[in-house]
Amino acid sequence: MRFIYSEWDDAAIQKLQNLKDLMSIFNYLLLQVNGDAEMALKLMRKLQAMGVLPEDFDLDGFEKNLEKSNIVSWQGDNISLTRKGEKSLRQDAFDSIFEHLRKSGAGGHIIPHGGGSSEEALPEKREYRFGDEFNHIDFQNSLMNTIRRTGSLGLNMAEKDLEVYDTEQLTNCATVMLIDISHSMVLYGEDRITPAKQVALAFSELILTKYPKDSLNIVLFGDFAREVKVKDIPYIGVGPYHTNTKAGLEMARNILLKKKNVNKQIFMITDGKPSMITRRNGSVYKNPMGLDPVIVNRTLDEAIICRKKRIPITTFMITDDPYLQKFVAKLTELNRGRAYFASSQNLGDYVFWDFVSRRRKKR
User: Fold this and answer.
1) What is the pTM (predicted TM-score) of this model?
2) Exposed (0-12), middle (13-18) or buried (19+): which is 104, by Cβ within 10 Å?
3) Are the CB atoms for 169 and 119 separated by under 8 Å?
4) Each residue of 152-204: pLDDT tens digit?
5) Does 243 fall in a domain?
6) What is the CA radius of gyration of the chain?
């Protein structure tokens, strides 16, 4: 499903006008139209004719530059994104979301559990202990300790003189990002799927470039659950689907149980209560009205199984639906996970903040 731009509200137009350059506008529109480069370029021309984009924007030159830079390519009469274009889209999403976190000092890839594969030095220092890495020794302070102890400038350093920088344990993590593609993600003209895709793109860029030992899988859930590749994220669309949260959690759990990463977690972006399950015999049970106890209980069973398998679920709600809030509160309680209420504007901040700040433990 796509937005009809003639029906855009002032907030959507303001969003476009706030974007810093043509490439950012192009990337934003690409997500709106599910990766259709030709449609995105046509919309840019339409928006310029409407006065939303400045008249002095050279769209002809911009289109030629996209092709010259290998961001798009022509295949017959059709123009489409290249692999480089998909990479550019991920990088732009990462930059726009992570800029706020850099300003707020959210920090690095920090975890709450031991058993890590690497360490990162902290500003704080402590006395040397057997087994500490030599590259963490503060030799300047250690030498001063020797001078104070001996009263001379000789290099008669003892073990008790040594100071080391404290460290934080870093480890790899397997994450499955669940994205709700039910019809409500674009219901009543409110676009929730575009920010969800932007977060998924930015998150995948973070994993691919900064934490290559991590793993990230993307799972969509509507009537059913299905896994997609990172390269497919721009082309994700919603449809007339119910919300089969159980199927999404079950697929995510099965993916994670095959991973060898030390830590495993599920990030779920949703705006609707569960309204459908698939029974063991393959039959489908649907009820979009309220919180159906049959659907809810089977879905909550997945939260309990995930808890027993040590897979926390972090839910990012992008609606104030009281039914969803009630369901997520129970799911979070049973799973011992976390939940956040986020708007479509700050969803990325919440996802990235949780990822980089909830995994801290000092040695």
Assistant:
1) 0.74
2) exposed
3) yes
4) 777 778 888 888 876 655 568 899 999 999 988 887 667 889 889 988 998 89
5) yes
6) 25
